[in-house]
Design goal:
heterodimer; A: alpha/beta; Leucine-rich repeat, LRR (right-handed beta-alpha superhelix); 11 helices; B: alpha/beta; FAD/NAD(P)-binding domain; D-Amino Acid Oxidase, Chain A, domain 2; 8-stranded mixed beta sheet; 5-stranded mixed barrel; FAD/NAD-bd_sf (chain B)
């Protein structure tokens, strides 16, 4: 199957932070980063500047996830949730309408006024920088049926602990490719008893994908869980090994 | 006048002296043993603004917040003195690592809520340039506290208070409980409270290492040694009503090095007692409790070490991935550990069954007689289990009311306490550290009001009793 983990995670948070120590694509980048480390160890000014830049990156993500309370009060929770997702770069689908995505011109307020009472049914926030605070806007959508959070770089186990509020309506959830989600966060999905489709493939932080899939399937008996093949990670058995030997071509 | 006539240069006294002087002069010359500059890199500094006794999670948290809330960068010099750098007997690393908001005092709920927020954003609080982010291994599975008939009303009252403070806790009836967790036997359970968000368990060692790393980058000094003595001065003052009080001020802390008699007197302005299970001994060294009983001077710090066992067992048919940390009304508790159907758990013994805290040996009979029957009654699948291993750790048990002691001592004016949390210190450490730092820097609590946790309550007899102790 195709790998869903794009380098968004590395691109978005590497650079001066040096998070991707284990992944080092180019030699010249490595040289540059070591020089920076050398300077940081020896000069307080360099260290202070780097700490400031790190802090600024974090504040940027927090700013994106601010609650849109003024829109919520004026137009209602559905429009507020849709505005939030569209601003982050995702797409939404209201009931009986088509999928909407923000275009280059931005979001026009005219369409929103018409959709105040229409419940939001599906949200696709794939690749968006949504975090724990930003989930506030999504959890108010009480008729949400499908939620797609693929490859979200800031979504972690704490955020999954909040999804129980959508238990009544949520039927489809996709968490594929999120780098920070582990089997511990998946454990709190048991509240979502109406869930029918769950996608937990390609989670790099899950230590044992096959076993996790079995345990999640036991936890959610009515749900179809797409994830790693349960045989993944199992060792080759003895009968398969002996089949290889006579099967190999012997030159005449 | 010749000096040699007055003082004889021969004789028993002078002979000894001359040979001593000769030896000293020989050692000063190159090649000799004496050197005016000797290596003191293993000793703590001679002067420090704040000395924190105890390098566990509470001590490190106080150090972190002191450095974070200081007005100018580098204004406060902090020294953390820890007796054992392997943390072999420290309560932090032997802890089960749970965090919950289900307490009976509003202050405890607020402390846990802030600590949950700290742990959630730990990579913003404890970020160090060029170091990988921390993974606390947090399981957001929540706590499930069960109550029998007698405790049901109190539990309902507590949950109402917790929800007012902002904790996300819900009440469940036995039928709802049976439906949600079919592996529970709801016999004897009248009510259950289930924490939905910000509750679970995490890896305390990771938090400790993260704090240490961040503190080293912030310039906090660490020292491995034992505090053996406090040098203090007293001043006699009169209160408004004419009573005589003796106020003490600690000037020096003597830190003795490991496996040697060498010690370093550290001059300090403030001492923070975060020594955990041994805080009582440190307080005695400072003179807390030296006085006639029934007076403020004679009030000891009622914190003593209590041994608690944690057992790890394997049960193939046990509760699944959704299992929270379940606490039985009888006091037994358990939680899942990892993916392989392993479980951790234990039980707090009653006063009569308290084990001897002299060592950390594990008593497996306690599991057979006290813990297993209670667990097997609550979860029938636990009839067939196999104990894999066990360990023991200390609670810094506050015998007065099982809640923490925070803030300055009224008579030893520059000793601050951050101890006595009786089993919930780890989960409240970030918030308590902030409270103590605020007390030291500002003089009063700013964010969370912990005045019910001050030392003076031991003298006045005002108990801030915590009922939900595990």
């Amino acid at each position: 199957s195709l790998s869903l983990v794009t380098p968004v995670w590395n691109r978005g948070t590497s650079g001066i932070r040096g998070l991707s120590k284990a992944v080092d694509p180019e030699g010249s980048q490595r040289k540059g980063r070591t020089l920076l480390q050398f300077l940081t160890d020896r000069f307080y000014d360099v260290e202070a500047v780097r700490e400031y830049l790190l802090r600024k990156q974090v504040l940027k993500v927090q700013k994106k996830n601010r609650s849109v309370t003024y829109i919520k009060e004026r137009y209602g929770p559905y429009v507020a949730g849709a505005y939030f997702v569209l601003k982050l770069g995702g797409s939404v689908k209201f009931r009986d309408r088509e999928w909407m995505r923000a275009d280059e011109r931005g979001l026009s307020s005219l369409e929103f006024r018409k959709l105040q009472e229409v419940p939001l049914e599906a949200v696709d926030a794939s690749g968006c920088a949504i975090n724990y605070q930003g989930l506030d806007n999504l959890l108010a959508l009480k008729e949400l049926q499908s939620l797609s959070l693929r490859r979200c770089p800031h979504l972690d186990d704490w955020c999954l602990g909040r999804l129980y509020q959508l238990a009544d309506s949520l039927q489809e959830l996709s968490l594929a490719g999120c780098p920070r989600i582990s089997e511990r966060g998946l454990a709190c999905l048991h509240h979502l008893q109406n869930l029918r489709r769950l996608d937990i493939s390609d989670l790099p932080a899950v230590s044992n994908p096959g076993l996790t899939q079995i345990l999640v399937e036991e936890m959610l008996p009515h749900c179809e869980v797409l994830g790693a093949d349960w045989a993944q990670g199992l060792k080759v058995g003895p009968e398969e090994q002996s089949q290889d030997a006579p099967g190999s071509p012997i030159p005449a | 006048m010749n000096i040699q006539e007055k003082v004889p240069l021969r004789g028993p006294y002078w002979d000894g002296k001359v040979s001593e002087i000769k030896k000293k002069i020989q050692s000063i010359f190159p090649g000799g043993a004496w050197s005016p500059l000797y290596d003191t890199s293993h000793l703590p500094p001679e002067r420090s603004d704040v000395v924190i006794v105890g390098g566990g999670v509470l001590g490190l948290s106080v150090a972190y917040w002191l450095k974070r809330l200081e007005k100018q960068r580098g204004a406060i010099r902090v020294l953390v003195v820890e007796r054992d750098h392997t943390y072999a007997r420290a309560s932090t690393v032997l802890s089960v690592g749970g965090i919950r908001q289900q307490f009976s005092l509003p202050q405890n709920v607020q402390l846990s809520l802030f600590s949950a927020e700290f742990l959630r954003n730990i990579n913003e609080y404890l970020a160090v340039v060029d170091d990988p982010p921390l993974d606390l291994q947090f399981n957001p599975s929540g706590y499930l506290l069960l109550a029998s008939e007698e405790g049901a009303a109190i539990m309902e009252h507590n949950v109402k208070m917790q929800r007012q403070e902002g904790a996300k806790v819900c009440l469940m009836s036995p039928e709802q409980l049976q439906k949600k967790f079919p592996w529970i036997n709801t016999e004897g359970v009248a009510l259950a409270s289930y924490g939905l968000e910000n509750e679970g368990w995490f890896d305390p060692w990771c938090l400790l290492q993260g704090l240490r790393r961040k503190l080293q980058s912030m310039g906090v000094l660490f020292c491995q040694g034992e505090v053996t003595r406090f040098i203090s001065s007293s001043s006699h003052m009169e209160t408004g009503s004419g009573e005589q009080v003796t106020l003490k001020r600690i000037h020096e802390v003597h830190v003795k090095m490991d496996h040697s008699q060498e010690f370093q007197p550290v001059e300090c302005a403030i001492v923070v007692n975060a020594a955990g299970a041994w805080s009582g001994q440190i307080a005695e060294l400072a003179g807390v409790g030296n006085g006639p009983p029934g007076t403020m001077q004679g009030t000891r710090l009622p914190v003593e070490p209590r041994k608690r066992y944690v057992y790890l067992w394997h049960c193939p048919q046990g509760p699944g991935l959704e299992a929270p940390l379940v606490a039985d009304p009888s006091g037994a508790y358990f939680r899942r550990e990892g993916l392989g159907n392993n479980y951790l758990g234990g039980c707090s013994p009653t006063e009569e069954e308290e084990p001897d805290p002299g060592n950390l040996e594990v008593d497996y009979d306690f599991f057979q007689e006290k813990v297993w029957p209670r667990l097997a009654r609550r979860v029938p699948a636990f009839e067939t289990l196999k104990v894999r291993s066990a360990w023991a750790g200390y609670y810094d048990y506050n015998t007065f009311d099982q809640n923490g002691v925070v803030g300055p001592h009224p008579l030893v004016v520059n000793m601050y306490f951050a101890t006595g949390f009786s089993g919930h210190g780890l989960q409240q450490a970030p918030a308590v550290g902030r409270a103590v730092a605020e007390m030291v820097l500002e003089g009063h609590f700013q964010t969370i009001n912990l005045s019910p946790f001050l030392f003076s309550r031991f003298y006045f007899g005002e108990k801030a009793q915590e009922h939900c102790i595990l």
